[in-house]
Specification:
The chain is an all-alpha fold and 150 residues long. The chain has a domain of 84 residues. It is 55% helix and 0% strand. The protein has 5 helices and no strands.
Length: 150
């Protein structure tokens, strides 16, 4: 019985073979889609940067819509951000664009994260710019005695 165990063959119905062939065909189409036209890839990147920048900064309280973000980013080279929302959007979009352009060579480290943070804050007006340094001491939210407040 043990001797013949490896000699067994799987019996596949015609229907199952056709389904497997369809899956293989779709896999080929998906692989081919990775070789997209550079213009299409540029448009996809632009769309992702706009949508992601708008969504991410809205989580932080920004009020700009995707359309407003798109208009703002289109003219970013001609003018500086006027308010905190625009500063956040500009920094986020700049960083996301850099990650898209260099993702294959980026190595994540503490210094890289600090560099990302610096890029995120690079559009903030100097007077308002958060420090961005690693805190040497743990911060507690609470009363003066260091106890957690509820």
């Amino acid at each position: 019985m043990l001797k013949n165990r490896l000699d067994k063959r799987i019996k596949l119905s015609n229907e199952l073979v056709l389904r497997l062939a369809k899956i293989d065909e779709l896999k080929g189409q998906w692989t081919g889609a990775l070789d997209l036209n550079p213009k299409i890839l540029h448009q996809l990147k632009k769309s992702v940067v706009i949508t992601s920048s708008a969504s991410s900064t809205r989580i932080e309280g920004a009020k700009m819509t995707d359309a407003e973000v798109e208009r703002f980013l289109r003219g970013i080279r001609q003018r500086t951000p006027k308010n905190r929302d625009e500063e956040e959007i500009a920094g986020y979009a700049d960083l996301l664009g850099r990650v898209f352009d260099n993702y294959e060579t980026l190595k994540i480290s503490e210094n890289r994260i600090l560099q990302f943070h610096k890029i995120l804050l690079s559009f903030f007006h100097k007077r308002q710019r958060p420090s961005g340094a690693v805190q040497a001491k743990r911060q507690y939210r609470g009363n003066r005695k260091g106890r957690q407040s509820s």
